[in-house]
Structures
1.
Amino acid sequence: MASMLDRLRAAQPISSQPKAAPAALELLVKETCAQIAVEQREISRETLEYLGVHAQQNIPLENFLFVDTETTGLRGGAGTVAFLIGLGQFRGNTLQVTQYLIRDYHQEPLMLRQVLPRIEGAGCVVTFNGASFDMPLLDSRATVNRLQDAYRVPLHLDLIHAARRVFRMRIRQCSLGAIEAQVFGQTREDDLPGAEIPARFFEYLKSRDEGLMDAVLSHNFTDITSLARLMLLICRLHEKPLEAGHQQDIFSIGKVYEKHGQVGRAAACFRACTDRDVKVLAGLRLADMYKRRWDNPEAAAAYEALLAARAESPHVYTALAKIYEHRMRQPARALDIVRRGMLYCAERRHISAKAAEDYAALEHRYLRLVRKVEKQKHGILKQVESQIRPVETPEGAN
C-alpha cells in the first residue's frame, strides 16, 4: 500500500488559475444600448454635494457607472451570490448596458474579474439602495473570491436617499417602480417582480432553460436605464428647481438648499410654493430659517405673513413674540402677539391637552410681558418728568 508521502508526491499540483467552464456554460456577457436624452455633459461638484457625494471636481457624464445586481437572496448574507451584474455607462446620448450572467456558481470569480475593474475605474458609482445592499454584497464576494486587494470602490451615489429627499412628500413609497410610475409616468408591463428573481435563477440551474433568464435580464436592464434617467432628473431639479412640475418637489429641494446653507436659493423655492397646503409649510419653513440665522426683520415679516394668511399656530405666535421681545426690543408688540395667541389657544383648549399646555405657556409669557411693558412705561414717564423744568415767572408779572 502506498504511503501517505507517496500519495502526496503523486498528487497533481493545484493550479492557481480557474478552470475553464464547458463551452455550453460560458459566462454570458450581453451588450445592449438605450437612447436617453442628455442635456448636460457633466455633473457639477456643487450638485453632487447636494446629492450627498463629496467630489473634488465636476464629473463628466461618461465617468458615472450605473450598477445593479440580481442575487440569490434579497436580504444579503454570507451565502448570497450576485448571479447577474448589470453596468451602464453613457457614450454620448447612448447608455451602453453590459450584463454579466453566471450560468453556474463556479463562474462567479470570472464575472468579478471583469466587473470589479470597471467599478474601480469609474469616476462615481451610481446605485439605488446600493449602500445597504449591492456594494456590501460585491465587497463580500470579492473577499470570498480573494479579489479584495485589487478592489477599490470610488465615489458612490446611492440615489434612493436623494430620491426620498426630493419625492417623498409627493410619493410616499419611493421604490424605483413607484418613481417610474409617478415621476416618469411609465408603468412596467410584463415585468418579473424582484421578489421572484432568486427562485427563477434556481429553476434555471435545475432545468438549464435559457429562456427563463430573459425576464431577469429585461428586469435588470430596465432598472439600470431607470437609474440613469433618475440621476439626470434629480441633478436637473437641483440645478433648476423652479422647473419642477410639482410644488411638493420644489419645497423639498428648498429644504436641501437650506441644509447646505444656500439661504437665497432656499427662500426662492419656499416663496415659489403657492398652493394652499404647501404654501403654509413653505412659509413656516422660511420664517424658521430666517429666525435660526438671526435675520430678525425677514423672520418677523415671514411670521406676520403667516398670521395674515390665517396660518396660525402656537409656534408662530410664540416665535414671533420672542423675536419682538428679545431681538427687536419691542415688548409692547410682543405683548399684542401673545394676546392674540392666547385667544387662538383658548378656543381650542377643550379639544386637546396640547392646546391647553400652549395656552398656559402663552399666559405665563403674557403676565411677564405685562410687567415688562408697565415697567418700561414707568421708566419712560420718569425720564420725561425729569426733563421737565418749571417755568419761572418774572417778578411783577400777572
2.
Amino acid sequence: MNRIERRSGFVAVVGRPNAGKSTLLNTLFGRKILIISDKPQTTRNSIRCILTEERGQVIFIDTPGIHKPKHQLGEYMVAAAKSSLRGVDMVVCVVDASVPFGTGDERVIEIIKDSKLPCILALNKIDLISKDNILEIIDKYSKLASFQEIIPISALQKENTVKLMDLIFAALPPGPMYYPEDSVTDQPEKFVIAELIREKLLHLTRQEIPHSVAVVVESMEEEKNLVKIGAVILVERDSQKGIVIGRGGSVLKEVGSLARQEIENLLGGKVFLEIFVKVKKDWRNQQNRLRELGYNLKELQE
C-alpha cells in the first residue's frame, strides 16, 4: 500500500469586508470556528485556523477585511491583513462576485500582486448571480493579475468548496504537521469566548454599535462542575451603553443567554457567564487602549 505524501503550509485568506472569508473557512472546516455576521469588519484580528486531513495540514490565516481605515483600530486591521502575507506559502483571495468591481477590490489585488505570492481567486456568492455572468466575471479578473486558479464558489451553499480545498492542497509543498492533529485554532480560550459574545452583539444590535464595541474576558474560574466567566463589553458613548443593555436589560440578557450556550458547547460543561458594560470614550483611537485589547499596530509595523 502506497504511503500518502502529506502536504502542509500556511494560507492567508484575504479580501474586502463582507466578502465571506470567515463563512468560507467555517464551511471548509465543516463546523463553526469563526464568528460571522452581516456587518462589515466583523473580523478584527488575523486568526490561525488549523485544518488537518489524511492528506496533510493547512494553516489558514483569516484576516480582517481590507478597507480604507477611518480610525486607529481600522489602521490596525488593515496592517494585520497585510502582515498576514509574511511567511505564508500562498493566498486565497475571496471576492464578493455579486457586487460590482470597485476600488476596494483593486486595492486588495494590488496588495496581493506586491506580495508576489501564488494566489487562488475565489469568486464567492455565485448563488446570488446569474450563471450566465460568471464567465464574464472570471474573464474580467483574469486580466487583472496572474492568478494560479480562478474558481467560482458559494461558501454559504457549499458550492465548489471541496474543489477549492483540492486546489489548495495541490498547490502546497510536501511538509510536516505544524500543529497537533486535534488543533483547530492557536487562539486562547478567552479570545474565542470574547469573540462569541461579540458575535451575539453584532446580531442583536444595529446603528453604530457593531463597530464601537470590544469584548474582554477578565476572569475564568473553574468551580467543581462549573466555569465562572466574567466579561466586559466596552462601548464609546453613554448612549451606546443604553442600547447594548436594552430596556430592562433585555439585550444584554439575550446576548448572555445565546453566548453562554455556545461557550458551553466549546468548553463541554456548564458555564456561569456574567457580563458588564463599560464606557471607554473613543477607545478605537487610543493606542494604549488598543494595545490593552491586543491591537498593537506598532508591533505589526516592525
3.
Amino acid sequence: MKDTIHVVFWNLGNLFDIQPNEISSNLEFTPNKGWNEKVRDIKIENLTNIIKSTFDTGPDLIGVCEIENAFLAEKLIDELKKLLGRDDYQIAGTNIDGKLKPYHKGPDLRGIDTCLIYSNKIFEQLDGHGYMINFRFPTRDIFYAKLRVLKNNAKLNVLVNHWPSRRGRDDYSELMDTEYSRYMAAEHCGRIVDSILKYPKMEIEKFPNSVDLIHEGKTVLEKLEERWNVNILVMGDFNDEPFDKSIMKYLYATPDKNLLRKWNRIFRLAKEDFKNRDKTYKQIYLEQPSVLFNCMWNLYPNGSLYFRKTNSFNLFDQFIISRGLLCGKQGLKMNLNSININTQGMTLGENLSESKFEQENNYDERLIPLEFKRRPMSFEFDRTKNDNNNNSIYGNGNKSRLPTGYSDHFPITCTIDIL
C-alpha cells in the first residue's frame, strides 16, 4: 500500500449537465444557449486531463465544487479511469438512515454542489453529511466526509467548502457587499470543526473537576488532547484570502503554528489573565475555539484565481488543517512542502498563440494584455443557439468556434503522509 495520499481541490468552473430544470433553465448553461452534450463532454475531458497531470499516478482524494450532479461526477471518474487505468475512484456519500448514498445534492439555487471523490483502495468512508448554511436564500452547503485509511486505520475528517461569491446577488453589488455571508459560512464551518475536536457542553459537565483525575480510563487532560488532535482537512473555494477576516477571525485559521496549542498550555495561559483566574477548566474549555493552520501563506504572491474586479491574483482556494494533521499526532501528517497551485497546461500563455497578446512596449487594445499570460484559461464555448452537433442554427449554419479551456480557477494540490 502507498505511504502517501495525493490530494487535489478544484473549482471546476460551472460544470453543468445539459438537462435544464425549472431553476437553471433561465441560466446560460443550457442547450438552447450552446451548452450541449458535445460541449459538456469536451469540458469534462479537458478537466480530467488536468487532474491526471497533478500527480504521476493521479490523485487519491479529489474535492471539487461547481459541479451539478452525480452523473457528472461519474463521468469525471469514467474519464479518469481511461486516462489513469485506475478503477478505485468512488463518490463520497451522505449518511441516510445508516446507509451511505453516493453524492450529496445541495440546496444551491444555481444547482452547483461540492463533491468529494476518493480512492477505495486507500480509504473506507465511515460517514457523510451536508451542512446547510442558514441564509434566507439557498446556497452551497458544506460537505463532510469521515474516512478511514486502510493502511493504518487513521481517521481523516474532510470538509469541502464553497463559500458565497464576492459578486453578490446582482450585477451592481460592491466588492464587499457579501462579506457578511462569508462570516456566516466561516462560523458554520467553525462550529463543525468544534464538534469534531471538542466535547460538547453536556459531556463536559460529566467530567471530573480536575484535568488530572481519571475519567473512563484516562485522565481528563489525556481525553481532551486525544480529541483535540483528530485529523481534519478543510478545503475549498472560500472566496476570501487567507488574511481576510472570515478566515482568520471567524474560522480561526492562522499561519502561526504556535497558536495551535496543547490544552495544558491553553489552561495555563488563560489562568495568567486576571479575568480568568476564577474560571474552572471546563469554562475555559468551552470558551476556547478550535484553532486551525492555514497551509497556503507560503504561496504568496501566487494565486489560484485571477479576479477581474481587482485585476489581481487571489488565493481563494485553500487547504486548512487541524493540529493533529499538522503535527502527525494520529497517523497522518500534512507535508507542508507539498502545497502547490497547479498551473501547468492551464494558463492563457500556454493555450493561445503569441499573436493574441500585446507585444512588450507595443500596446494594442484589440489584443490581450501581456500580463494576462499567467491567468487560468476559462472554458469558452459558442454561446449562440446551437444544435446537438455544436453547429450554429443562426445565419448560414457555419460550424461554431470549438470549445476550449478549463476553469477560471487553478487546482491546488498537497500530499499527506501515512505514518
